[in-house]
Structures are given as C-alpha cells and as structure tokens.
Amino acid sequence: MRKSKKERQERLQLTIQENPFVTDEELAQEFNVSVQTIRLDRMELSIPELRERIKYVAEKNMQDEVRSLPIEEVIGDIIDIELDSSAISLFDVKKEHVFTRNGIARGHHLFAQANSLAVAVINDEMALTGKAEIKFTQPVKEGSRVIAKAKVTGSEKGWTTVVVSSFVGSDLVFRGEFTMFRAPSSEKGEKHEARN
Amino acid sequence: MRKSKKERQERLQLTIQENPFVTDEELAQEFNVSVQTIRLDRMELSIPELRERIKYVAEKNMQDEVRSLPIEEVIGDIIDIELDSSAISLFDVKKEHVFTRNGIARGHHLFAQANSLAVAVINDEMALTGKAEIKFTQPVKEGSRVIAKAKVTGSEKGWTTVVVSSFVGSDLVFRGEFTMFRAPSSEKGEKHEARN
DNA sequence: CTGATTTTTAGTACCTAGTCCTAATATCGG
DNA sequence: CCGATATTAGGACTAGGTACTAAAAATCAG
C-alpha cells in the first residue's frame, strides 16, 4: 500500500539528504511510484537534480582545500606600546576566524593575537615563545572586538614573562602567561643560549 | 602559434588538476584547439570526464564528513584519526610561517596545528579550548615538516584532556596539554547529516 | 454516486557533457 | 613529395535530467 504524498515527500527528503548520489530512477523504484512523480516531488521540495547535488558537495570540498590560513605579520592592530613594559592590541573577529558550526572564534586566533603581542612588547625582535599557560575564559563570537593587554611581569637571564589579558568589552575572554626567550640572532636554532 | 601536443597535454593535466570543474568546451577555447582534440588528450592521459571528476571529489568529501569537524577547520593535514582517542596531523613550515629575521616558525602556527588537532579528535558537534599549557621545546625552522600527535588522556562530563606532542623528525618541538570543553549535538545519533 | 479536484502517469522535445566511431584534412619530419 | 602523426568534423548514442502537455487514476465534497 502506497503511503500518502506527504509522507513520501518527507522520506524522499531524508533519503536524498542521506545519499545525495541517488537518481530519480532509483528513488522511483524505492517508493514504488513513477519517475515523473519523483520529479514533481523534487520540484515541490526544491531539491536540485542529481548533478547539481553532486556538484554542490564537490564544491564544498574544493573550498576546504583552498584553505591556507593567511596569518598576517602581526595579528591584530597594536594601538599602544611601551617596550619592555606593556602593549595593547585590537583584533576584530570576522567570519574567517570562527567555526562555521557555531560562530565561535577558534582558539588559535586569540592565542595568535596574544602571542604576537607578547613578541612585540619585547624590546628585541628575536623573541621566541618558550612556554605558555593559557586560559579561554569565555567564548568569543563573530563580530566581537578583542582587546589584548600585555604586561611584562618579570625578566631574568634571557627570559621574560609576559601576561596577556584579552577582553571583549569588559569581559575577560582569554588570559595567557607567556615565557619568552630573547633569542640571539644566530642562524642555529638547535642550541639556544641567552646572550642579551 | 599553437604549442606542441606534449606541452598542451602537460598544461591540460595541470589545469584540470587545479580546477576539476572545467568542461572540454572551455578547455578547447583555452588551448585554442577543437573539443575533439581535448577529448583525445583526456583519453591519452586517462583523465575522466567532468561528471566523473566532480563525482570523485564529492565522494571524497562524503568520506571526510564522518569526522567531527570539516577538514577546513584544521591547520595541517590530518593523516590519521581515531575519534575520541588519537590523531596525527602534518604541517609543513613555509616562508609565511616564520620570522623573516631568523627563519624560525612563529609559535602560534605550532599552537594552531596542535589546537585544531585537539578539536578535531573530539567526537562532538562542538569542542572549545578551555585551558592549555604549552611548551615550545625547540625552534622549528622553515622547510620542516611538523608531525603533531594528539592523544586523549582523560575525559569527564563535558571536559576532555588532550595532549599534543609535535615532532620534527625525532625531535620534540612542542608539547601542549589542552583542556577541551565539549558539547554534544542536540540530536544524538551515529548518522551524520549531509547538508543539501 | 456524481462531479470536481488533486495526484499520478505517460509521452514529447530539448539540454549538457559527454562516449564511440569513422572519415577527412593538416602539419611535420625525412 | 610521401607517409606518419595530429587535428578536426560529423553522426549516432548515452545518462540524467528540464519543461511542457495531456490523459488517466485516485481522492474528496456534497
């Protein structure tokens, strides 16, 4: 016994969603109706034809492959800096910085802003990050403006500690304690000795 | 002047590789030859027709979709993953990832690779980084291939700890312990949805 | 039950992006 | 110039459709 049009269309939608590679012919057999009926159903539900569906899936895949994280020189705009003391930078969270699924900023962008600010605040361009202890205290949504404040809290024999606190409005969203190594300009990266 | 058959075929291969969505018609115009010539070329190079190419790309995508995260969200290429257990990704350090001064990779790229691997390994709709304790044990130079290995070390209601160790060859260059907040999808089930 | 309406089916012409095949030219090396 | 290779042209056929017309079948209202 063939079910009602409504039920068929619901199941049709699910079937195609699950397997976009199915042809009208196959669907007609599955639902025991004519191919034309399947086509009318697709039209009513505005489900595109097989080739369009496949193309859509493929295109989505291609976009993914073009992904090449374009991280700029400095993440965020430095709006204030006092070398070896403190710095403030600003970072606007845009579409490309968030998870498509929930619109929340990916952690590494907040980290990148903080980390590059920690590098910048050090009065020696050869600063490398040695350790970091970080905390994401609140999710940051698309469209937010993140203000990172870096403060140099300690310094000894080549190592400097920088604490970066990032805010959206008055809310703390990120906090990180970075131990920065003031690297010598030697080419060798293997042995790192404190020199200045 | 039209180039030789050999050169045309080489360029044809590259063109299709770059953009599998191109038709024979378009290729014929681009190379200033007839459609038939393009088809002979494709046959000689055993390049399938447009629809087969698109289908192949789409199918690849469907396989990937089983993962908890779209592949685009991951920095580096995931070469192995066992959800809620372990994952391995690969990241090639290029010019754009290093400090121009010394050719050493900026920390946030290593962090990004590790962090996104930690997100990917979690088998939930949503995974956010809560805390992280990280260590950069050795500088990474341009041209290095960084292999990040993530291991889920603990899990309790809503929180999962993931340890990521990154290597260049046999040298540990980065280590991070991430505390990830996880949120299961509203609709429980093994079936993944194909968005149409 | 009848008549109207909805739903389903059938069939036609046309489309794209091809395949496979034959046959006629064009171009090049020796 | 000849012969081989390369290119082009054309016809017949394919899948998986669209767009349209028309008719048959099922369903609903009174």
From TrEMBL, chains A, B:
Is the keyword Lipid metabolism assigned to this protein? yes
Q: Which GO terms fall under molecular function for this chain's record? A: DNA binding; DNA-binding transcription factor activity
Q: What CDD domains does this protein's entry cite? A: hot_dog
The protein's matches in SUPFAM superfamilies, at most eight in alphabetical order, are given as: Thioesterase/thiol ester dehydrase-isomerase, Winged helix' DNA-binding domain
> Source organism's superkingdom?
Bacteria
Supply the alphabetized keyword list: DNA-binding, Fatty acid biosynthesis, Fatty acid metabolism, Lipid biosynthesis, Lipid metabolism, Repressor, Transcription, Transcription regulation
What are the recorded Gene Ontology BP terms?
fatty acid biosynthetic process; negative regulation of DNA-templated transcription; negative regulation of fatty acid biosynthetic process
Residue ranges of every copy of the HTH deoR-type domain listed in the record = 8-48
Q: Which InterPro entries does the annotation name?
A: DeoR_HTH (IPR001034), HotDog_dom_sf (IPR029069), Transcription_factor_FapR (IPR017275), WH-like_DNA-bd_sf (IPR036388), WH_DNA-bd_sf (IPR036390)
Tell me, in a sentence or two, what this protein's role is.
Transcriptional factor involved in regulation of membrane lipid biosynthesis by repressing genes involved in fatty acid and phospholipid metabolism.
> Which family does this protein fall into?
Belongs to the FapR family.
* Name of this chain's protein: Transcription factor FapR
- The coding gene here is fapR
